[in-house]
Request: fold
Amino acid sequence: MPQSLMGKTALVTGGSRGIGRSIAERLAKEGATVALTYNASKSGAEEVVEAIESADGSAFALHSDLSDVQAIPTLFEQLDRELIRRNGSKALDILVNNAGNSGWGSFRDATPDNWDAIFAVHARAPFFVVQAALSRLSDGGRIINITSGAGARAMSAVPIYSMAKASINNLTHALAQELGPYGITVNAVAPGWVRTDMNAAVRENVDMVKMIEADTALGRFGETSDIAAVVAYLACEESRWVTAQVIEASGGYKL
Reply:
């Protein structure tokens, strides 16, 4: 089959595991040169790059702690150097804001510190990553934000996380208006319950699993590849008339 992203370049934040890893691997499978960021898991990032290259794809990993807004200019300096070395240009075609951190914590347990920690990664970092990317992003480029079903249907167990993801939904709409004149589309993908290590404890609770599956139209937890497939569509030319959308990829959770 033809590769829909041949010759394109992509940056996937938080690409060393979970949904981010599947997105990086899928974009590379479609022909893109993929830069992925990691924070704590260098070995995980190296494993992803090795897997992509073993499948004849092209990828490289960059360390960046996106909880620190000052790290973003450094990230793009590193990205520029590597893209110029590989492609002769620092042009970026696809940006996927995926990086996240744990959002668990009830309203009564919330502190200013965990508020700041969650908003720094889930809301502030994507804003300034996009700002930094604009001078590199090609006309007709793609910005894809990974949000959550909790951004539209707030979960009482994770109020700060829910608010941060609602912010990303709003940012998606605002950026689509801002960047439309350049042919740049901006969309968000909102997963429901997906099998990742961040919800491993939930999946160990048999009753909770049965309840979630019963509340999901397709009757199962999502796989990371399910989300990557939606991202791959939004990254390709076929999605050129789709922008300013928050696409829920939840298997029909709590319809």
